[in-house]
Specification:
alpha/beta, serine acetyltransferase, domain 1, UDP N-Acetylglucosamine Acyltransferase, domain 1, 2 domains, five-stranded parallel sheet, 14 strands, about 40% helix, globular
Amino acid sequence: MQNFEQQIHQTLELILNDYNNQRVIDRIKNFDLPDNAVIEKILDSLKKIIFPGYFRSHSVKIYTVRNQTSMLLEDVIYKLTKQIAIVLRYDALYETASEQEVSQKAQELTFSFLEKIPKIREYIETDVQAAFEGDPAADSRTEIIYSYPGLYAIFVNRIAHELHLLKVPMIPRIMTELAHSKTGIDIHPGATIGKYFFIDHGTGIVIGETTIIGNHVKIYQGVTLGGLSTKGGQSLKNVKRHPTIKDNVTIYSNASILGGETVIGENVVIGGNAFITKSVADGARVSIKNPELHYTEPTKK
């Protein structure tokens, strides 16, 4: 009978030999991988910058907006530049570039992103307003900022979207998947979302990469804005696969709107559980017939 050390040795050799099959999962990268924990810390610092009066750092003894923002900004610049430098190596343009070239590009991308913070804050302000005006259960805007999962998912998406537009690899998707894991709301960083966007409840929402959403759009839990088919795989890359939702549209729970040619016109209301693969004209109301309910009287004992 083999002893414990021999079993460990044989198992180790079995796994190491399996690494030699030249598959994608067998590749050993000779450069670093992005760090999800660091990216989450970047999001936390950006939250404090974007909402300066709400998420102050308690480690700062003498609090001023300038002091805290300066420290947070330096922290984001250092961490984000380093993470971007890591992921740039996964871009064919930078795989063999010098460390100096990669570092310079990472720094340029970091500052280009940070210049978008006023725009992100402008949009987030409208999202808070839309949530407050659209939800009678909301007691205050502060409650929304602190506790609404929909707003958090939108906040992360607005950050990730700007990085996506700058063609930063991997990090935007890592950010939105971190938000997905916390909220149950899956928004691809490529989705284009207008102002006054309100997600009510939110769990189970899916918004695909090429979705375009206008202003004053409200969606409920379980909504899917997706593609009709993914059988084409990579051949569908950069093709408009997801719907366009125009201004002032409300989409109720568990509705599915699919297809890149599907356009939902302005002022449309989509009822719960609707399944839509064709465009809907401005001002329309779409609903499914209520299923017939059958009640059985309880058996008397």
